[in-house]
Amino acid sequence: NLETGKYERTFNGHSDWVTAIAVTPDGKRVISASYDKTLKLWNLETGKNERTSNSHSVSVTPIAVTPDGKRVISASSDKTLKLWNLETGEDERTFNGHSNSVREVALTPDGKRVISGSDDKTLKLWNLETGKYERTFKGHSGWGWVNAVAVTLDGKWVISASDDKTLKLWNIQTGEDERTFNGHSSSVRAVALTPDGKQVISASDDKTLKLWNLETGEDERTFKGHSGWVHAVALTPDGKRVISASNDNTLKLWNIQTGEEIATFTGEAPFNCCAVAADGVTIVAGESSGRLHFLRLENVE
Prior knowledge:
Layout: E1 9-11, E2 18-23, E3 29-34, E4 39-43, E5 49-53, E6 60-65, E7 71-76, E8 80-85, E9 91-96, E10 102-107, E11 113-118, E12 122-127, E13 133-138, E14 146-151, E15 157-162, E16 166-171, E17 177-182, E18 188-193, E19 199-204, E20 208-213, E21 219-224, E22 230-235, E23 241-246, E24 250-255, E25 261-266, E26 271-276, E27 282-287, E28 292-296
Antiparallel strand pairs: 1-28, 2-3, 3-4, 4-5, 6-7, 7-8, 8-9, 10-11, 11-12, 12-13, 14-15, 15-16, 16-17, 18-19, 19-20, 20-21, 22-23, 23-24, 24-25, 26-27, 27-28
């Protein structure tokens, strides 16, 4: 319970850091990815590990579930993306093209294409059904590893976050860099779009989160409270609250309009990832210990 600081369930099974978490659209199952080279499918109610997939040759970093909830796309330090069937665990397709580790993936709202971000400082657009590469997005500079990507609900724009301390807004059809968001003082690790598509929230190694106006690029609000790098961020479906995960061993719940810290949950190890289910009250977060924590939002206004 995030309000009381007491967790309700822990999933054990990974032997190394949990790097990414995704919840199926029906809210019944969770997929986790890890440095132990595996993906695991969990029943959210029972905590049972239903399936393990281990086709990547090295650590699995990001994952994304297709809108129909039937498949998951994963990416890895082996420079590839893979498409998995959630029911069978079958590796259906491999996407090759990046020249360095792939750190993030995001699907377009129609589920037909996937965007990947890599340590090669580029984003790539792929056709999910054919595996065909369609476009490369270049613009991040210096130590410009691409740590995070998100696609707007209309499928027209892509947001990326990088070690070059910036976010960038891209035209998905042309690959053009339309806008750069400057304000963080260190690497930007994660991004999430508000449900109305008008704002984006970012998380950074500078220990803060920032809320940005997507149209103007204005930095509207800064969220301060973590004492360590902020690795991940997720929004509740109503867009009113933000959950952040940090290497200070905490998850924090914030009011997005005021920037107020509402509640904190403290774990036993750094948190690397977090996700919110469609019900808006179920939260899953992954630790560097290999554990997944299951929490619920209760009595939080």
